[in-house]
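Postdoc handover notes: sequence design on the structure in folder B. Input tokens:
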């Protein structure tokens, strides 16, 4: 039997979680009541944290992957002494509460990552563990374990059913991430009922084959000592992540315990009263915490504060002995970019030979990778096509494999796009990194479950997406994105950049690095593009600009990426017909929207018709253009020059449309699109 105090604490967590959900009249009491012993074990016996300094660099990380159970996490943060009061618990799921309906990292101190979409949290945890291993390998010195912490996760059946978790667990096993410890809430219940309806595999066997250490606890409701011993054992296994499968009862204590009824509905008032009576608490009282439980957690907080103070002292000594490393550590954790970065970005003139923007991206990476040690990531098995591996790169691998080291920064994600993005989110959450992932633009659609969380979580992740249109040619419509950029542009807090040449690629990277609170997607070509007259890094940062501004043009052609140079050709054909057209390159709609009105009007003056050209869906261009050239169907398989003809994207097609549009607007007023006051 567990010492009495632990039992009281666990039952307090259960009752408090039930109160929180009941007060909101919304939420999930089952998982918190079943997972209370795990949470109590972690927060009182294992985790190293200082609630008064939630950003302490080497704190242990905790992720509640079954984010629907977040009443549990908020209760734990309250007990642990974080800035989550009883009043905050009472405002669970209400507007502007620090206890929102699912955990959001930017809303609540102590929440590391945003969870709720099942499978993401465990995958973020793999990223957190990679970040820890890399930072430790980079900064620790003999006698100076500046970075040394564990990543703990609680996850449920749903997380384990999600494909993204399989992708990342497989990689975590390969990478031998020994400081990753996952506690599986094996309660046999999900929303539809018993897991035997569709989930009968042996999870531990699966994880063992991934290279994990696995343990089983048969009574996670009552065997607290067994639970503590299992976590102890997991910590001793240093070359494998550990999964502890813990049999629990969902809604433990409720009249409906062990059934799906307690998954996602508040307990009735009667039920809560009987739960409290059963636990020996006063059924009349709610939101109550016994003094002995508060005292227990106050002691834990004291120990945490003490450990934090010892770490500060250690870091002082480290700073004296390794001043440059210490300064670099501080720079990275404060998200400050190295001063040399901007100067290192290559610049081009129209005399330079035509190059594919994916190749120009590789040139940038080679210039900046050594200056920017926080840049870490890789490609989903398309390194050769995506050109994302810089010359001095070392793979992030366990030393024993002979393939690299934990100090390496090039991650071999394998063909795991969704997992790649979720891992990047975890690395970003750790702090001190700029993670990146790469694949063909079309396959970001495999990863949007995680990329939209990069945006929601305010994480600076750089998505380097190549082969960005029908311009990839022969691989055909299965590989050619059509709707993809429209989707990404519709996603809040996401910077979409489709550079047209070398200067724009450099500018796109600078914007991606400088935007510390949002992800960027760089759409890059497979085919060669000429360097444009008028392009520059500075212009790129404005989002859109006239390449060669002309006094009162008859027509504006606006384009992105590979279509900009085609528009430049089209202006020559239009000039022969007496139409003076100017070309606006628009590498980023978002950056353009952030400019002032006068600038926007200078790029798109009133009274001048605008045609957009982009080898994607035309969806979304109505905001800027009176007519749009693009795709209304999927692409096709052929050499890319033929595809540009088939889909009406040649300079001739654009010039023809230009003639039609200018004719039309001779007899019609040109609607004002840009800079309307409403
Ligand atoms: C990606 C995703 N799909 C669906 C849901 C909706 N959902 C929330 S909890 C849940 C059931 C999860 O079962 P389990 O992990 O066993 O949780 P338990 O019922 O044991 O608390 C589902 C389908 C979700 N949150 N995320
Ligand atoms: C605690 O959080 C509240 C928001 O709920 C904030 O106003 C307050 O400043 C925070 N206190 C501390 C000490 O951080
Ligand atoms: C994004 O980057 C651009 C260009 O570097 C900069 O002007 C802008 O302020 C940044 N925005 C945010 C939100 O960081
Ligand atoms: C530097 C530091 O605080 N290291 C600690 C990391 O965490 C483990 C256990 O959580 C401690 O044993 C280390 O001392
Ligand atoms: C330059 C380069 O590496 N090109 C490769 C792009 O990717 C395809 C496969 O997807 C390869 O066949 C090319 O050789
Ligand atoms: Mg379950």
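Designed sequence:
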């Amino acid at each position: 039997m567990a010492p009495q105090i632990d039992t009281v604490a666990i039952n307090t967590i259960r009752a408090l979680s039930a109160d929180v959900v009941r007060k909101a009249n919304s939420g999930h009491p089952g998982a918190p009541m079943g997972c209370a012993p795990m949470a109590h074990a972690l927060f009182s016996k294992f985790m190293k944290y200082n609630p008064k300094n939630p950003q302490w660099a080497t704190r242990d990380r905790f992720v509640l992957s079954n984010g629907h159970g977040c009443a549990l996490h908020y209760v734990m943060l309250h007990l642990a002494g974080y800035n989550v009061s009883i009043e905050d618990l009472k405002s669970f799921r209400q507007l502007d509460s620090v206890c929102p309906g699912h955990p959001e990292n930017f809303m609540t101190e102590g929440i590391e990552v945003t969870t709720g979409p099942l499978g993401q949290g465990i995958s973020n945890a793999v990223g957190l563990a990679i970040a820890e291993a890399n930072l430790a390998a980079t900064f620790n010195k003999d006698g100076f374990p500046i970075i040394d912490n564990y990543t703990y996760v609680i996850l449920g059946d749903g997380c384990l059913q999600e494909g993204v978790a399989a992708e990342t667990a497989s990689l975590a096993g390969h990478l031998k991430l020994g400081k990753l410890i996952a506690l599986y809430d094996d309660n046999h219940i999900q929303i539809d009922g018993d897991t035997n309806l569709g989930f009968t595999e042996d999870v531990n066997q699966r994880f063992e084959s991934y290279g994990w250490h696995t343990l089983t606890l048969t009574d996670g409701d009552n065997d607290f000592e067994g639970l503590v011993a299992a976590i102890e054992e997991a910590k001793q296994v240093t070359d494998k992540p550990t999964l502890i499968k813990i049999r629990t009862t969902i809604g433990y204590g409720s009249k409906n315990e062990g059934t799906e009824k307690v998954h996602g509905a508040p307990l009735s008032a009667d039920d809560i009263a009987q739960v409290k009576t059963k636990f020996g608490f006063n059924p009349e009282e709610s939101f109550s915490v016994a003094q002995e439980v508060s005292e227990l957690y106050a002691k834990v907080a004291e120990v945490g504060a003490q450990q934090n103070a010892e770490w500060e002292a250690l870091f002082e000594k480290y700073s004296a002995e390794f001043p440059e490393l210490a300064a670099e550590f501080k720079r990275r954790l404060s998200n400050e970019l190295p001063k040399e970065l901007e100067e290192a970005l290559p610049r081009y003139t129209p005399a330079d030979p035509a190059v594919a923007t994916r190749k120009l991206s590789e040139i940038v990476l080679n210039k900046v990778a050594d200056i920017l040690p926080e840049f870490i990531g890789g490609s989903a098995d398309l390194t050769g096509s995506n050109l994302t591996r810089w010359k001095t790169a070392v793979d992030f691998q366990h030393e024993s494999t002979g393939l690299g080291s934990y100090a390496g920064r090039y991650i071999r994600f394998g063909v795991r796009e969704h997992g790649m993005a979720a891992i990047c989110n975890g690395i970003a959450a750790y702090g001190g990194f700029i993670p990146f992932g790469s694949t063909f633009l079309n396959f970001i659609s495999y990863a949007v479950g995680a990329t939209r969380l990069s945006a929601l979580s305010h994480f600076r992740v750089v998505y380097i997406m190549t082969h960005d249109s029908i311009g990839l040619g022969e691989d055909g419509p299965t590989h050619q994105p059509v709707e993809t950029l429209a989707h990404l542009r519709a996603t809040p807090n996401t910077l979409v950049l489709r550079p047209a040449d070398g200067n724009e690629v450099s500018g796109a990277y600078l914007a991606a690095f400088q935007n510390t609170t949002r992800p960027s997607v760089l759409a890059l070509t497979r085919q060669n593009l000429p360097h444009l007259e008028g392009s520059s890094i500075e212009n790129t940062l404005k989002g859109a600009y006239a390449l060669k501004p002309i006094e009162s043009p008859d027509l504006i052609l606006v384009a992105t990426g590979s279509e900009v140079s085609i528009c430049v050709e089209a202006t020559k054909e239009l000039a022969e017909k007496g139409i003076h057209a100017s070309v606006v390159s628009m590498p980023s709609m978002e950056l353009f929207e952030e400019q002032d009105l006068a600038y926007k009007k200078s790029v798109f003056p009133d009274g001048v018709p605008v045609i957009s050209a982009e080898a994607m869906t035309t969806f979304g261009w109505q905001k800027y253009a009176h007519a749009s050239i693009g795709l209304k169907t999927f692409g096709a398989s052929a050499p890319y020059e033929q595809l540009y003809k088939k889909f009406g994207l040649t300079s001739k097609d654009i010039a023809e449309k230009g003639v039609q549009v200018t004719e039309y607007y001779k007899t019609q007023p040109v609607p004002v699109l840009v800079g309307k006051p409403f």
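Context for whoever picks this up: The chain has 25 helices and 20 strands. Don't rerun without checking with the PI first.
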